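Here is the promised in-class demo. Please do not try to memorize the tokens; focus on the logic of going from shape to residues.
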């Protein structure tokens, strides 16, 4: 929901005298904008051509390994399996193409702020609890609470089996968002198995969290960021309002999931796919990891993206996390 358009001019940019600004209360989903276009975009007598069909972009669910460069330290670039098409970059290309075409006719493209009214930016902290037992999770929460950082936690339930948050410890867990990562940490490959894992995981997560007042699971995030074609429909059927898999999108704005037949109500909230543990694997030291996230934040802010990072409770470098949380406090 980036651009605001006059409902009368939206589908017919060619030959339009101008694009109307219609105020902060009306927004159009960007998918409905570019579903009208194939391989070109026209405005008056000018045309831009792309080497792809815009409406197909959000149906792409292929993944590939990509390296990410925000620091020169370490003995290799950190990499991750992510969506083969960067949906965020496509959105920027589409937006700037419109801006260029409009400018050629002395027209302006108006865009909404990408953060809530009254906020200078948006900071999101996602935590996949891979392999963390209750003690490790508790210690991690104490540190986040100390720095007043609220996290969205996605629970790996296998190491938490048979454990439960006591009423005494429950206040430590309040104020954070609790979601489902997995019942067992394995990629969702078969549709039937995925349905069972998500249903049983939902039940187990609620049992683990039952002493936290008012808790309910908002979201699901599949192991390894893998997002097979059937997953969005299952997540929606189970009542999850959003998901987060960088196999579907990364380094982008929150996007409504598109299926071949119709739009779903579910959203994807993308996060940067490189976590501190990825930098550990690339042999980054403490200072180079801090430099990586500082530069990453600068890029995200300059693009108008949420500063969206993700982490795990386990850290090889015990001195790094406090530095990262201090940096996060700036947002």
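The designed amino acids, position by position:
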């Amino acid at each position: 929901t980036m651009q605001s358009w006059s409902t009368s001019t939206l589908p017919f940019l060619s030959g339009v005298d101008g694009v109307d600004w219609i105020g902060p209360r009306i927004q159009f989903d960007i998918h409905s904008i570019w579903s009208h276009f194939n391989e070109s975009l026209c405005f008056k007598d000018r045309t831009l051509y792309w080497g792809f069909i815009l409406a197909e972009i959000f149906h792409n669910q292929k993944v590939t390994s990509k390296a990410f460069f925000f620091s020169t330290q370490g003995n290799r670039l950190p990499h991750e399996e992510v969506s083969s098409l960067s949906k965020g970059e496509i959105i920027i290309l589409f937006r700037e193409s419109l801006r260029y075409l409009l400018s050629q006719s002395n027209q302006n493209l108006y865009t909404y702020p990408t953060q809530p009214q009254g906020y200078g930016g948006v900071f999101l902290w996602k935590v996949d609890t891979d392999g963390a037992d209750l003690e490790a999770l508790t210690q991690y929460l104490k540190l986040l609470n100390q720095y007043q950082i609220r996290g969205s936690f996605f629970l790996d339930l296998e190491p938490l089996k048979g454990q439960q948050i006591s009423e005494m410890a429950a206040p430590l867990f309040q104020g954070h968002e609790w979601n489902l990562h997995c019942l067992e940490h394995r990629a969702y490959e078969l549709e039937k198995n995925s349905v069972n894992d998500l249903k049983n995981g939902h039940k187990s997560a609620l049992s683990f969290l039952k002493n936290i007042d008012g808790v309910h699971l908002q979201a699901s995030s599949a192991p390894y960021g893998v997002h097979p074609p059937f997953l969005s429909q299952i997540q929606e059927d189970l009542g999850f309002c959003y998901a987060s898999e960088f196999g579907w999108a990364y380094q982008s704005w929150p996007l409504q999931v598109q299926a071949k037949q119709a739009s779903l109500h579910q959203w994807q909230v993308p996060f940067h796919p490189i976590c501190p543990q990825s930098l550990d694997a690339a042999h980054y030291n403490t200072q180079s990891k801090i430099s990586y996230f500082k530069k990453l934040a600068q890029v995200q802010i300059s693009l108008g993206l949420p500063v969206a990072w993700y982490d795990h409770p386990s850290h090889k470098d015990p001195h790094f996390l406090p530095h990262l949380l201090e940096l996060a406090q700036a947002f």
